[in-house]
Amino acid sequence: MLLQPEWYTWYGWNDRIFLLVNHLSDTPTLSAAMEMVSWVAQPAYFPVWMALLVVSFRLRPLTLPFAVVWDFAVGELAVWLIVVALKSGLAYPRPVVALGSLSVHVVGRPEYWHSFPSGHAAMAFLLVGSLLLGKASKILWIPAAVYAVLVAWSRMAVGAHFPADVLGGAVIGIFSAALAALLQRLTAPTGHSQDRKGRR
C-alpha cells in the first residue's frame, strides 16, 4: 500500500476523526439522511445544479447575479481537471480498504480507491464559493454553506472519504470558484477605460 504523507494522515488523526464521524452516524435514520445528502451532491448532477442556477438567474437576477452562473460553470471545469488529476495520480485507498470492512460503516455501494480528494465536497463548496464571490443574496449562500458542510460530513458518514479528502475537496471547490471569479474580472470590459474614451 502507498505510504501516505503526514499532510494527509495528520499523524493518525485523519483515521480517528473519520471513525468518530462514521460511527456517530451509524443509526438507520442518520444513515438514510446522510445517504440522501451525499446522493444529491454527486458530481454527475452538475448539469442539474447548473440548470437551477440559470433558471434562478433568469427569474431573480438581483438575488442571483450572472456572475454566480459564470463562476459555477467555469469553476466546475477547474474542479474536474484538478480532482481527476489528483485522484489518478495519488490513488489513495478509501476507508474500507485502509481500515478494514469490520471497522467502517458503509452505506450504499462501497468504494475502494481514489479517495483524495472528494469530488462531492469539491462541487458543494464550488457552489458556496460561486454564490459568495458572485455576490448572491445571503438567502442563498448561507443555506448553501450549511448544505456543503453536511455534504462533507455525509461523505465520512457513509464511509466513502476521510476528513482530509473532504477538506481537500472543499479547498479545491473554493479555489476553483475564486479562479473563475478572477477570470471573469480579467475578461470583463473595464468601465473606466470606456469612460476615458468618452471624455476624449
Describe the structure.
The protein has helices spanning 6-9, 13-24, 28-40, 46-59, 66-90, 95-98, 119-133, 138-157, 163-187, 191-199. Helix 4 (46-59) packs antiparallel against helix 5 (66-90), helix 5 packs across helix 9 (163-187) and helix 8 (138-157) packs antiparallel against helix 9. The chain is globular, with a radius of gyration of 19 Å. It has 200 residues and is mainly α. The protein starts with 5 loop residues before the first helix and ends with a helix.
Can you summarize this structure?
By secondary structure, the protein is mostly helical. The protein contains ten helices and no strands.
* Cα Rg: 19 Å
Largest β-sheet summary: none
Per the principal axes of the C-alpha atoms, what is the gross shape?
globular
Give the integer mean of the pLDDT values: 92
Strand content: under 5%
Give the helices and strands as they follow along the chain: HHHHHHHHHH
Q: Count helical runs.
A: 10
**What is the count of β-strands?**
0
What distance lies between the first and last C-alpha atoms, to the nearest angstrom? 68 Å
What does the oligomeric state look like here?
single chain
**Low-confidence parts lasting 5 or more residues at pLDDT below 50?**
192-200
| Protein structure class | mainly alpha
Q: How helix-rich are the residues, as a percent range?
A: over 70%
Descriptive labels:
disordered C terminus; mainly alpha
